[in-house]
Design brief:
Shape of chain C: elongated
Radius of gyration of chain C: 23 Å
Oligomer: heterotrimer
CATH class of the largest domain in chain C: Alpha Beta
Strand order of the largest sheet of chain C: 2-1-3-4-5-13-12-11
Mean pLDDT of chain C: 86
Shape of chain A: globular
Distance between the termini of chain C: 64 Å
CATH superfamily of the largest domain in chain A: P-loop containing nucleotide triphosphate hydrolases
CATH architecture of the largest domain in chain A: 3-Layer(aba) Sandwich
Strand content of chain C: 15-25%
Number of strands of chain A: 10
Chains: A alpha/beta (272), B mainly alpha (288), C alpha/beta (362)
Distance between the termini of chain A: 10 Å
Number of strands of chain C: 15
Helix content of chain C: 40-55%
Number of domains of chain A: 2
CATH topology of the largest domain in chain A: Rossmann fold
Number of helices of chain C: 11
Largest interface: B-C, 44 and 41 residues
CATH superfamily of the largest domain in chain C: Response regulator
Strand content of chain A: 15-25%
């Protein structure tokens, strides 16, 4: 509870330093992902409960809700990590009951994980290349040179301050660098839709700034970004749309300012 | 000298086996104990091909590769349903089944009596009759396998294998059809161990099922654990140590009545020490 | 790391090239080296270790020979690939004059190597192919002789009809086929049953067997199969005598078979058995007894040649001397050395008396 209140206080302090241009872009209005009547149960508990919600294109969406509200479950379903029990997902006008993990690249979807999922026993560079190298069986056997990705690789390494750690195994990195590596891996992919699952948790302020800058950069390129985050200050600073979940259902959505002021949200999530 | 050449031939054959197994276990994390079965099938393809059908050695290598590839493809589909410890247990089951077939399909394999008089490789009119020439051939094939290992290791294919050994779902989310990758590496590893089997059959000139039991699969696993998982160099060094260590121990002048037991104890103790001080193996790049 | 590997290679190379054992003719006797490989560790170690003692006895018995016999033991771990390497060590490092191996996988791996290097080799095994080539010999052609011995015994007991209960294993299957061959020859009627100790209906099988009214039942099965069958027989008070080849002595429950006969390889002379008893409590004596005889045979052939020619024979001369010996009285009985290199050795009938296997013929 104290943390949530602190978050709100934080948000008031940070309010004055906007970094990103969060005005809705011109493409606003069309939905890149449409979710209809989605349900997912875990041992009888409905983590996602008959949820219908849209992800608007080219927006930066803050996905918020208390612990266990179904945020990560929703992202997991949208990125093929979980299979829903019922419902329909439409990605770029294609309807389907579920998304397969290996189709993400085809749909130009990229994501990070709350717990920092990396391939621990391979190098930083290999972790980055993994998301861009040939994914066809035969072609991947032929591909032994990384020349095609060299430029992008160097750029991403620089953006994520990993240049000097490039040959280290992922498991040797500090917590902050691990988070950056995960973000770097997403940046390597030329995706249209990015999911960031708590990208700022546990980071030092200067790294938070670094990540903010990266997300803003994506925003400027007109990408659709979904961020799961507890820090309301960061949500207000980065997002131009908010979706609030509660017990697997949609509690509210819309402009962050309005949503966060709404009574229902304040009562159920912020506990105020 | 002849002794060292023979030892080197055996070392080469086991290097090939270790390389092919490390592709599977080290690179892709699939702990298979069935390698001895594919090794045996390769050996029997050469033995039967050369003695019964009068085929040339190199033709029987291809025969062994084809039989192994088909079998591995089918078995790989079954194994793909299992993971971790279960994968190892099911693959051990496969090893036992193949051993039983070699033991009981007497019309083809001669059962426990084995097959005798397996010939040497020949190119044109030249036969690799001398052990030195045979060693040359083994070395060439070992180098080819080593190079192939390194090629796969440095290719995007190898990177995907290394990703899926830790987090298959994550690898999938990068767009890889991981099942296909697993299937291909299993088939490749099985086929390559068949080559080692062919050389073994031709070298010993006699094979029986006892050489291809589950314990052989576990011995191969030990080689790559000692040498180091996911390392071509480790595979070769592991084979060198496990093949030559018992031979070195023959010469340390132990009292002969208890020499065998002492040798085994020293051998065991050295492996134990190696694992204590180098748990990742000598050149290991991956821990399970 | 690299340094470590270099050291390993260097040690291996040095030790391999180091021939310090050569020509230790302290008392001016010519030296004959015999390389003996045995399964001294692993699952067959009991056979190997006892054979080692037996070979030591043979060496002891030739202490006063005009020839100094050097015996080099190596552990083949019952693995053909190891055996191949050891054979090459014997040939190129130790420079032995003869090689002795035990069990067919090992003998089969060594036979072509010995043939190529022109070194005399005798394998203790029941695989005739080991004897291929001029210098290869094989001893212990057991199954043929054992099956014949069994049928001879049945004939001697006036047996007209037998029932055989066969467990479905490779070993038992071979015994069944061989036995049937001699039963046919000698005109003994037989009825066969197959079973698996885990899931067969013994009661039904025994009922059907009783209907055949046989004089003997052949329990062609290792334990627990033979034990289960025998227990059922005792329960039902069936007093038909039972026989088999070798299996009986491996039962953990020998009193079940009190007074029943079986065919076995001989365990060597009484004197040999007493000598062995001082070394080990193990009851595995037949293969060691063969090992004794083979090594003794090699030594005697060397000595014979030496007495006649004043020098030790080369490998061809040794092989020739062996073949000319034809018959040899060993501790297992009379061995017949055939021209094709197969050494035929006898089987014996034993009976379980007071829980011990006792030879009843010869």
């Amino acid at each position: 509870m104290m943390k949530k209140i602190k978050d709100i206080l934080n948000f008031r302090k940070q309010q004055t330093v906007p970094v990103c241009d969060i005005n809705p872009p011109s493409a606003y209005g069309s939905n890149i992902i449409t979710i209809k009547d989605l349900t997912k149960q875990f041992m009888g508990i409905r983590a996602i409960d008959d949820l219908s919600v849209n992800i608007p294109q080219a927006m930066t969406i803050g996905l918020i809700g208390s612990n266990g509200s179904g945020k990560t479950t929703l992202v997991n379903i949208l990125t093929g990590m979980l299979r829903p029990d019922a419902g329909e997902i439409t990605v770029r006008d294609k309807k389907r009951s579920h998304i397969k993990a290996n189709e993400l690249r085809k749909y130009r979807i990229a994501r990070t994980f709350q717990d920092g999922r990396l391939i621990e026993q391979i190098s930083v560079v290999d972790n980055l290349l993994l998301s861009v190298a040939e994914n066809d069986l035969v072609d991947s056997l032929k591909e032994v040179s990384i020349k095609d990705y060299q430029d992008r690789l160097e750029k991403v390494l620089e953006m994520t301050s990993l240049t000097e750690h490039r040959h280290k195994n992922a498991e040797e990195l500090s917590y902050g660098l691990r988070k950056l590596l995960e973000i770097g891996r997403v940046l390597m992919q030329d995706a249209d839709i990015y999911f960031f699952d708590e990208p700022f948790s546990g980071l030092f302020p200067e790294i938070v700034e670094q990540v903010c800058e990266i997300i803003c950069g994506l925003q400027k390129q007109g990408k659709t970004i979904v961020i799961i985050e507890h820090n309301m200050g960061l949500i207000r600073r980065l997002c131009n749309y908010t979706i609030v979940l509660n017990h697997g259902k949609l509690l509210a959505e819309g402009n962050p300012e309005e949503v966060l002021q709404s009574k229902a949200v304040r009562e159920s999530y912020l506990g105020v | 000298m002849e002794y060292l050449i023979n030892l080197a031939i055996l070392f080469g054959i086991y290097s090939m086996l270790a390389l092919s197994l490390n592709m599977l276990i080290g690179m892709s994390g699939l702990v298979s104990l069935a390698q001895a079965a594919f090794y045996g099938i390769g050996a029997y393809a050469t033995a039967i091909g050369m003695t019964t059908f009068g085929l040339g050695f190199f033709t029987t290598i291809i025969l062994g590769i084809v039989v192994n590839a088909i079998l591995a493809f089918v078995v790989g589909k079954i194994l793909a349903r299992f993971q971790g410890d279960y994968y190892a247990i099911v693959s051990a089951g496969l090893s036992i089944i193949v051993f039983s077939i070699l033991q009981n399909w007497k019309t083809v394999t001669h059962g426990p009596l084995g097959i005798f008089g397996i010939g040497k490789p020949a190119i044109g009119s030249y036969t690799f009759y001398s052990n030195t020439a045979f060693l040359g051939l083994v070395v060439i094939f070992t180098i080819v396998l080593y190079a192939l290992y390194q090629w796969i290791n440095h290719s995007s294919f190898g990177r995907v294998l290394k990703a899926l050994r830790e987090d298959e779902k994550l690898a999938q989310s990068m767009g890889y059809k991981t099942k296909h990758f697993k299937s291909v590496i299993f088939v490749l590893s099985a086929s390559l161990s068949g080559i080692a089997g062919a050389f073994f059959a031709s070298y010993i000139a006699f094979i029986d099922p006892s050489s291809f039991q589950l314990k052989e699969g576990i011995f191969l696993f030990t080689i790559i654990i000692v040498g180091g998982l996911s390392s071509a160099r480790g595979s070769v060094v592991g084979a060198l140590i496990l093949i030559s260590l018992p031979e070195v121990l023959r010469f340390i002048g132990l009292p002969y009545e208890t020499a065998a037991q002492l040798q085994q104890m020293i051998y065991g103790a050295m492996l134990l020490l190696m694992m204590i001080f180098k748990p990742q193996g000598l050149f290991g790049k991956y821990r399970m | 790391m690299r340094k470590w590997l270099l050291v390993l290679c260097a040690v291996l190379a040095l030790t391999a090239c180091d021939n310090k054992k050569e020509a230790t003719e302290a008392d001016n006797k010519p030296v004959v080296k015999i390389g003996v490989m045995l399964p001294l560790s692993g699952e067959m170690a009991e056979f190997g270790q006892n054979s080692l003692y037996a070979v030591e006895f043979a060496a002891e018995d030739h202490k006063d020979s005009p020839i100094k016999f050097d015996i080099i033991f190596e552990d083949d771990t019952f693995t053909p690939s190891r055996a191949a390497v050891i054979a090459n060590k014997f040939i190129s490092v130790d420079k032995v004059d003869a090689i002795v191996t035990s069990f067919s996988p090992v003998g089969s791996a060594v036979s072509p190597i010995a043939d190529k290097a022109k070194v005399l080799h005798i394998g203790l095994s029941n695989a005739a192919n080991i004897a291929e080539g001029e210098l290869n010999f094989t001893d212990w052609q057991e199954l043929d002789i054992a099956a014949k011995k069994l049928v001879d015994y049945l004939v001697s007991q006036n047996c007209k009809k037998v029932v055989s209960f066969n467990m479905e294993t490779v070993g038992n299957e071979e015994m069944r086929v061989k036995t049937n061959q001699f039963l046919d020859e000698r005109g003994i009627e037989y009825k066969e049953f197959y079973f698996n100790p885990d899931n067969s209906d013994f009661a039904l099988m025994i009922q059907k067997a009783l209907d055949f009214d046989a004089d003997y039942w052949i329990l062609n099965s290792f334990s627990p199969g033979q034990d289960i069958l025998r227990k059922k027989m005792i329960e039902q008070k069936i007093d038909i005598p039972v026989v088999n080849i070798q299996c009986m002595k491996l039962s953990k429950n020998l009193q079940l078979f009190e007074n029943q006969a079986f065919v076995d390889a001989p365990d060597g002379s009484k004197e040999f058995r007493e000598r062995m008893a001082k070394k080990t409590t193990s009851k595995v004596l037949n293969i060691p007894a063969y090992a004794y005889d083979i090594v003794d045979l090699i030594m005697k052939a060397n000595e014979d040649f030496y007495v006649k020619n004043g020098r030790v024979p080369n490998d061809y001369e040794l092989a020739d001397t062996l073949k000319k010996t034809k018959f040899y009285d060993g501790i297992v009985g009379k061995l017949e050395i055939q021209d094709n290199g197969v050494i035929k050795s006898p089987s014996v009938i034993k009976k379980i008396i007071d829980g011990n296997a006792v030879i009843i013929d010869d």
